[in-house]
C-alpha cells in the first residue's frame, strides 16, 4: 500500500498490538495464555497517534506494539497491477 502515498497522499499503516487486556478476555482465556505481557491500552492509543503523526513510518509498514516497546516492520508486497 506504500504506492498510495506518493500519488494520492494516503499513508496506509497496519497497527499490530500484542495481547491487550480488555473485557473481551474471559477468565478461562486469560488462564490459557502462557504468562502474556499485556500491552496497556494507553500504549496502543499512543501508537495509533504515532502512526498518524510520525512521517518516518512509511505507508505499507506494520507498526508493532508490545509491552513497553514498538517497532516498524516493512512489508515487501508486490505492487498491484495498474491495469
What does this structure look like?
By secondary structure, the protein is of the alpha+beta class. It has one domain (4-74). Helices cover 29% and strands 19% of the residues. It has three helices and three strands. Strands 1-2-3 form a three-stranded mixed sheet, with helices on one face. The longest helix has 13 residues, at 41-53. The radius of gyration is 16 Å and the shape is elongated. It starts with a helix and ends in a 9-residue tail after the last strand. The mean pLDDT is 84.
Instruction: Give the SSE order as H and E letters.
Output: HEHHEE
Q: Biggest sheet, open or closed, and with what strands and sense?
A: 3 strands, mixed
Structural class: alpha+beta
Q: What is the global morphology?
A: elongated
Q: How many domain units?
A: 1
Strand order of the largest sheet: 1-2-3
CA radius of gyration: 16 Å
State mean pLDDT (0 to 100 scale).
Answer: 84
What percent of the residues sit in helical stretches (DSSP H or I)?
25-40%
Strand fraction equals 15-25%
Euclidean distance between termini CA atoms: 16 Å
Strand tally: 3
Amino acid at each position: 500500500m506504500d504506492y498510495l502515498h506518493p500519488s494520492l497522499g494516503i499513508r496506509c499503516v497496519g497497527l499490530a498490538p500484542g495481547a491487550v487486556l480488555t473485557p473481551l478476555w474471559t477468565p478461562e482465556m486469560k488462564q490459557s495464555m502462557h504468562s502474556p505481557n499485556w500491552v496497556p491500552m494507553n500504549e496502543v492509543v499512543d501508537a495509533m497517534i504515532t502512526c498518524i503523526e510520525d512521517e518516518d513510518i512509511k505507508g505499507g509498514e506494520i507498526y508493532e506494539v508490545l509491552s513497553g516497546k514498538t517497532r516498524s516492520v516493512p512489508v515487501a508486497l508486490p505492487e498491484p497491477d495498474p491495469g
